[in-house]
Design a protein that fits this description.
TIM Barrel; alpha/beta; nine-stranded parallel sheet
């Protein structure tokens, strides 16, 4: 469009600079990362639902949990928060504004900040008008929807449903094609015309009430990546493992294999729709398919982040969500480096396993490459650590002592036994003591 690669880059930098000025926040163009309010921003401790004693979908226990802790922080340096969800791809869009308002109302009533999660790719079961390419007898059927879902091969064999997701469960809807023009157009419409106006209205009210600290921001994403069903071929060897985590993986893959047999689906990887849209083909394949998919993934994440930034949500209140524990090698299509862009703070799932088992140095190294911006452990739980190897205070210190401004404690899991273990750890005496010390302003000890 601009005649040369150098000119395109120059225009992109200028537009980014202008955008941050308009929003009142400025990122360093040199490293392309949000640096707004890095040093003196409030540090948030968030708890994703369900909280102790809560019924599914209920906010009723937020105040009770705050009372159990005995403090909500001071609203300036450290602040307690809770997690809520903003639905996006739903049939009834009036639900979006209702959920947002309910979240802010709960924050005001309890003095516990609200932090929202926006699922970017899993929860679109209610929009078969975007994904039903295969069943004329069901609502939303359109054969052109095959261009909105992922393919198994260059020939364009489309996925019918997801056999496992990052949540560890299957889904009725197929795997989304992240760079489908129709998908991105619809997401853009909903965020700009429905989600953003509701958010801005509530944030404005908080500002008028001098309670801006009660908005802890938004985590945008749900560990986007590309399902690779070829792993099911490794099921026999995984079943032989006695490791609890591997046993859970075996259970998930067994269920996936059963569903795939029903659909006669190939046990192969997905991603060919996105790769085709990115300019690749059977005769012009990428040199490294995982790295090409990682690039698609990075652009998808940035696309979502920019929507919220353009809607005047400060970049210091937007976080990404990518899993940090998988091996950081060429087989990873969602490496920790893809979270950096000018419209957001980097955010990761930070369970202390695999890549992060011995500490967060891999994260610190990547953060240093981008000027050490503020960041978030948006999905966290120390219970995953090897028994007696990591205290909750040390785990929190790995975050907050190294620039994190948000830690989101998660106890949700598709497996009930795993969820029970996470609940026991996250709300046990040691963990609760560490939370109280943090919220009261204590310097966390890492040794």
């Amino acid at each position: 469009m601009y005649g040369s690669e150098g000119m395109r880059k120059l225009v992109a930098i200028l537009l980014t600079f202008v955008g941050f000025l308009a929003c009142g926040e400025l990122a360093r163009a040199a490293d392309g990362t949000c640096h707004a309010n890095d040093a003196n921003d409030t540090e948030y401790l968030i708890f994703w639902p369900p909280l102790p004693g809560a019924t599914p979908g209920s906010y009723g226990s937020v105040g009770d949990f705050a009372a159990r802790l005995g403090t909500t922080g001071n609203g300036t340096t450290r602040q307690l928060g809770y997690g809520a969800s903003i639905p996006v791809l739903v049939r009834d869009e009036s639900k979006i504004a209702r959920e947002i308002k309910q979240g802010f109302d709960t924050a005001r009533r309890t003095n516990v900040a609200v932090h929202f999660n926006v699922d970017d790719h899993i929860g679109w079961d209610e929009r078969p008008d975007l994904w039903n390419w295969y069943d004329p007898a069901k609502i939303g059927y359109d054969p052109n929807n095959r261009n909105n879902v992922e393919w198994y091969n260059w020939e364009g064999t489309p996925n019918k449903r997801r056999y496992f997701t990052p949540e560890g469960s299957s889904a009725q809807s197929p795997h989304m094609c992240y760079n489908s023009p129709a998908i991105q157009k619809e997401i853009g419409r909903i965020v700009s015309q429905v989600v953003a106006p509701a958010l801005r209205e509530e944030i404005s009210k908080l500002k008028q009430e001098n309670k801006e600290y009660l908005f802890a921001g938004i985590t945008v994403g749900a560990e986007a990546g590309f399902d690779d069903y070829s792993v099911i071929q490794k099921l026999p060897q995984i079943r032989r493992s006695t490791d609890a985590m591997q046993m859970q993986v075996a259970k998930m893959l067994t269920h996936a294999a059963t569903l795939m047999d029903e659909d006669q689906a190939p046990q192969s990887r997905l991603g060919y729709c996105s790769l085709t849209n990115a300019g690749y083909s059977k005769t012009k394949p990428p040199a490294d398919i995982n790295q090409a998919l990682a690039a698609v993934n990075q652009k998808f994440i940035e696309f979502w982040n920019k929507l919220f930034f353009d809607a005047n949500i400060p970049c210091s209140r937007i976080y990404t969500h990518v899993a940090a524990s998988p091996p950081q090698d060429h087989n990873n299509d969602a490496p920790i480096r893809i979270v950096f862009n000018p419209y957001t703070r980097p955010g990761w799932t930070t369970y202390p396993i695999a890549t992060l088992e011995n500490g967060f140095q891999p994260l610190y190294d990547e953060l240093a490459k981008h000027g050490n911006p503020a960041w978030g452990g948006v999905e966290a739980n120390a219970t995953f650590a090897k028994p007696n190897s990591l205290s909750w205070e040390k785990y929190l210190a790995w975050h907050y002592n190294h620039g994190a401004k948000l830690v989101g404690i998660n106890i949700g899991a598709s497996d009930q036994s795993l969820m029970s273990k996470l609940i026991k750890g996250a709300f046990g005496d040691e963990a609760m003591a560490a939370y109280r010390e943090f919220l009261k302003g204590k310097k966390l000890v890492e040794k």
